[in-house]
Amino acid sequence: MDTTALHTDRLRRFQRAGLYLVTSQALSRGRTTLEIVDAALRGGARLVQLREKGMPMPDFLQLAGQVRARTAQAGALLIINDRLDAALAVGADGVHLGQTDFPIAAARRLAPDLIIGASTHSPAEAQAAGRAGASYINIGPLFPTQTKRTSGEFLGLEGLKEIARHATIPWTVMGGIKPEHIPALIQAGARTIAVVTAITAADAPAQATRELLFKIRGQRSEVSGQKQQQETSNTAR
Residue ranges of the domains in the chain? Predict the structure, then answer.
């Protein structure tokens, strides 16, 4: 499979996943990231981002290889946070880059087949990521969250809608998302919901994963039905 076809296939699977687990051993209530990933995969997750800030590279690379083996066996995609070199070294499906990480355009030149994600917090950043060659953008943080230190400003639904209007590539959402937020996010156009503690800090991560997937898929189906009904009504006029 050539690089373009491989990237297209990976992005198709990415957009179908619905739920996007982002790991954090520090927020896993004493459980290891491998334990959380195993549980999430049992629960049906098929999209995982390995995000372990501050872990020394040798340890991170070993962990990435172990997670790659698990995701490959489950038929799940693996995205590596920040570290393009680690993503390439373990044969991951993609890399997710922040605004101060390795430049998107350079990453695209080095890894044309990888899914490249970009964290965005404004319409300008969303448009710039698309121009630079990102595969998708993440919009956030939406709500108060333990995983990022911010100035206390969160986008909320209105901020999400404003950035989404300027997005030229697929987008995901992240930041303090709880199950009760999912209906409004799907109604706002979100297809892929990224979470950390909703799974990593859950009493039963596998069950939490199943419940989140059920809710996301149900809402996506409902919104799709509403759109079809509206299109039918418009055609009949």
Answer: 3-236
